[in-house]
């Protein structure tokens, strides 16, 4: 267990010894700002910006021939990026691709695997997952002629923060065909035991998919060990690939022979794609689940920032993330609990993701006040201030300053100057 101290001197010492400290210079930090919202949208990196500008220049210079230059790199861009992403989850290169967005990729996964029968027709979910996952699940069961009430099985949280893994497993009854769960809960940062849950699903002949949106780029996963059926994720949070960046998709190699639920031209084998056949010639890899033309401007920043991740190493990122979030919790215990703050995430390393969930009854107004102090937090209903000290660009000194500001806002009742009326984007 790391021994922390509550002095500014200690924070500065931690920064001096931080093996990842030089990567901070690769990101564009606004002067004087403490950016704690990397779990919603990561900071822009210089590498991402350069990669995007390069693709724009290639389009400008080559026009239609951009698909042929550099050994057809951009026509095969999803393979280039898939191989880089595969390292973060320890998957085979051909099991990972990038395409569309998280919600469409959930639709792609479910439409591929959800083949309900009279005996097995339910999809198991939890009640704390991000809403887009539920929207996709609900619409998929409706497409099969079921009502949500009869075909969507919801495992409820017992405390509004965490999901019981035992209850999830108990819920895997004979009528369940598919399970879709988050690796990390967005509200409480709970990290589920993916291997245990996946093994229990497979023992029962149930397909399981994972949403990695709140773990990719901050938690190392070993998909060769976990062995899920499919997974989806966005690339704009910890991976900092830009607003609305193209999303990730994993499919286990044992399923390559399956027909995609949503087939498209770019899922066709490259060797026959331009024969323009009316019969789909499925590429037998994750790239066979592609649909339309790849959006290069949405993909290029991901290539740039993944170079940083591969240099830093996901295991090193995880080590600092665990340490700096533990440091934030330590300071919160020392200085904030007397002012109504509470930690709403697991404290055990093996059970938490990359952000800290600080709870307060005035969380929304505190977040408004934080912004006027040049701190960028993330608010979640109904009382959560999400704080992500991202390992690649947040310092220990910034965490120290953050806690000072949080203390002052409540001690001096600064939050009372702000309205509780929600803005369009909170």
From TrEMBL:
Molecular function terms, GO-annotated: kynureninase activity; pyridoxal phosphate binding
A Gene Ontology biological process in which this protein takes part is: L-kynurenine catabolic process
Cofactor list? pyridoxal 5'-phosphate
Q: In which pathway does it act?
A: Cofactor biosynthesis; NAD(+) biosynthesis; quinolinate from L-kynurenine: step 2/3; Amino-acid degradation; L-kynurenine degradation; L-alanine and anthranilate from L-kynurenine: step 1/1
- Recite the UniProt keywords alphabetically: Hydrolase, Pyridine nucleotide biosynthesis, Pyridoxal phosphate
Please provide one cellular component term from the Gene Ontology annotations of this protein.
cytoplasm
Query: PTM N6-(pyridoxal phosphate)lysine: at which residues?
Result: 237
Q: Which top class of enzyme applies to this chain?
A: hydrolase
Q: Might you give the EC number(s) for this enzyme?
A: 3.7.1.3
Give the highest taxon in the source lineage: Bacteria
Q: Where does pyridoxal 5'-phosphate bind?
A: 102-103, 130-133, 211, 214, 236, 265, 293
Kindly state which reaction or reactions the protein catalyses: L-kynurenine + H2O = anthranilate + L-alanine + H(+); 3-hydroxy-L-kynurenine + H2O = 3-hydroxyanthranilate + L-alanine + H(+)
**Function in brief:** Catalyzes the cleavage of L-kynurenine (L-Kyn) and L-3-hydroxykynurenine (L-3OHKyn) into anthranilic acid (AA) and 3-hydroxyanthranilic acid (3-OHAA), respectively.
Its family remark reads: Belongs to the kynureninase family.
Oligomeric and partner information: Homodimer.
Identify this protein by name. Kynureninase
Native organism is Cytobacillus praedii
């Amino acid at each position: 267990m790391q021994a922390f101290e509550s002095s500014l001197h200690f924070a500065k010492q931690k920064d001096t010894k931080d093996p990842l400290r030089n990567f901070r210079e690769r990101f564009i930090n606004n002067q004087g700002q403490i950016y704690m919202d990397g779990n919603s949208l990561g900071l822009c990196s210089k590498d991402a910006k350069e990669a995007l500008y390069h693709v724009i220049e290639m389009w400008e210079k080559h026009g239609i021939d951009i698909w042929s230059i550099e050994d057809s790199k951009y026509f095969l861009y999803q393979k280039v990026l898939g191989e880089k992403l595969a390292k973060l989850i320890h998957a085979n290169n051909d099991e990972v691709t990038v395409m569309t967005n998280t919600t469409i990729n959930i639709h792609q996964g479910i439409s591929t695997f959800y083949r309900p029968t009279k005996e097995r027709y339910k999809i198991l979910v939890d009640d704390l997952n991000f809403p887009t996952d539920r929207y996709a699940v609900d619409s998929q069961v409706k497409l099969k002629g079921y009502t949500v009430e009869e075909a969507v099985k919801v495992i409820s949280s017992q405390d509004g923060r965490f999901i019981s893994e035992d209850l999830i497993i108990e819920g895997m009854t004979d009528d369940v065909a598919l399970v879709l769960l988050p690796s990390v809960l967005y509200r409480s940062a709970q990290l589920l035991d993916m291997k245990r849950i996946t093994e229990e699903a497979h023992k029962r002949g149930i397909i399981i998919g994972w949403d990695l949106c709140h773990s990719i780029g901050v938690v190392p996963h070993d998909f060769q060990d976990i062995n899920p059926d499919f997974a989806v994720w966005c690339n704009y949070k910890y991976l900092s690939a830009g607003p609305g960046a193209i999303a990730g998709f994993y499919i286990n190699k044992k399923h390559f022979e399956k027909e995609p639920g949503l087939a498209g031209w770019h899922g066709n084998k490259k060797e026959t794609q331009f024969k323009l056949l009316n019969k789909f010639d499925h590429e037998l890899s994750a790239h066979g689940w592609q649909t339309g033309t790849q959006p290069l401007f949405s993909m290029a920043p991901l290539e740039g920032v993944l170079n940083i991740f591969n240099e830093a190493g996901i295991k090193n990122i995880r080590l600092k993330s665990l340490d700096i979030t533990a440091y934030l919790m330590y300071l919160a215990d020392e200085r904030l609990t007397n002012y109504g703050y509470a930690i709403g995430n697991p404290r055990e390393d093996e059970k938490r993701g990359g952000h800290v969930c600080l709870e307060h009854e005035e969380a929304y107004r505190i977040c408004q006040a934080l912004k006027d102090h040049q701190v960028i937090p993330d608010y979640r209903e109904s009382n959560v201030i999400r704080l992500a000290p991202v390992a690649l660009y947040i310092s220990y000194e910034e965490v120290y300053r953050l806690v000072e500001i949080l203390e002052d806002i409540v001690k001096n009742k600064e939050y009372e100057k702000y309205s509780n009326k929600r803005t369009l984007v909170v």
